[in-house]
Every structure is written in C-alpha cells, then in structure tokens.
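Q: How would the structure tokens look for this protein?
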Amino acid sequence: MEKLQLDGVEACVFDAYGTLFDFNSAALAARDVLGDDWLRLSELWRQKQLQYTWLRGLAGRHADFWQVTGDALDFSLATLNIDQPGLRERLMDLYLHLGTYPEVVETLRQLKAAGMKLAILSNGTPAMLAAVVSSSGLDDVFDAVLSVEDVGVFKPHPAVYRLAADTLQVAPAAICFLSSNGWDAYSAKAFGFRVLWCNRFGQAAERIPATPDGEIEDLAALPPIVLPALPATTM
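A: Here is the predicted structure in token form.
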C-alpha cells in the first residue's frame, strides 16, 4: 500500500460537527424520551441543518448557526410527529455539550505536544463552539476557534477557508484541513488547503472539485501523516 505523508504542514484545521464532535450524541442522550426514533431524528436534524446553511447562502439570507440548528430541529420534530414538552429545549442544550469521538482528545494532544498549530473552522457560532470545546475539556488545545460569523457566510464559501489562513498566518498549502463532510473536504481542497477527508461514515466520493489529498477512517491516523518524526501510515 502507498504511504501517505504530507510534508511541510504547519497547522491542522478541523471542522467541528461530525469531525471532532459527535452530532448524534445529542439525540442519543434524549433516548429516554425519543426511544427508537432518536437516530431518525438525529439524521434528519443534521440533513436539514446543512441544507438550510446552503439555502440561506444561495438566497443571501444569512442567519447564525444557532438559529439554523433550531429551525432544522423544529422541521425534524414536526416531520416525525414528535411533540414532547420541553424536548426541543433539552435537545438544543445537549447540542452545546456534544461528546467527542473516541480518538479525538488523544490525537489533538499528541499534535499539540509536537508543536503543531491547531484550529477549528466551523459553521457554529462563537458561543456554540466555546460551549462544546469547554465541555470537552479542550480549552487549552486550540490556537484559534474560528466561526463563519466572522465572514457572514457559511461553508463552502471560499471566504470561510481564507479566514483560517489569514488568522493563523499560514499559507493554505501549509494547512492540513480535516472534515468528515465530503463536500467540505472537497471544497477546502478547491480553495488550496492540503486536505484529509475523515470519512467516518463510509460515504461515497463527491463529484465536485477538487479531490482531497487522502482519506482516513478517523483522526487517529492523522499524526503520522503530518508529523515527520512519526512513521507514515499506509493507504
């Protein structure tokens, strides 16, 4: 198998939801009320959340990710005919305390210890990101936690990706961007980042420009790829 190695990487920039933080964990935590509907709700909630960011971007009607997340939840609850007192408020609060995927904390701390610059680049609002980073015990890990609210448009607009390069003062070609969302990974590569698609969910390849530099199953594979002192992984 061919070895995957990205040389000259000075910073790793991560999407938040689905890459670092498990968006399914909110509905799962309310399984006592949702029962077997928890996964259906979670999947529809996430689908509509992303759709609303794209539709608002195309229409030029930006609203922050907290409103979009709430609107998507309202649609999903209505579609599935779920009407439980207090459930909406509970789920929205749970979204501020999403769990991380199992390998995330160790991987981030390994990269940090090696001197790698680390950042989040997310559709989330500053308040949403501050809450989930804090609840995960990662306050001391990131050099920057960047929200699209700084540019007023959602991903995949190039201005969002440019925000990371400008803030970190690192050339796009020296940034390794990681996302579990194929559309996000491909769009970040089209902008000019080095990109690893963290394909957690076994998705098919996108048919949009441009192809990421590599694909990994989870973030545990990342350190050997971007840290020269570690043996490279194989693909």
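The domain at 3-22+99-234 is CATH 3.40.50.1000 (Rossmann fold).

The mean pLDDT is 96.

Upvote if useful.
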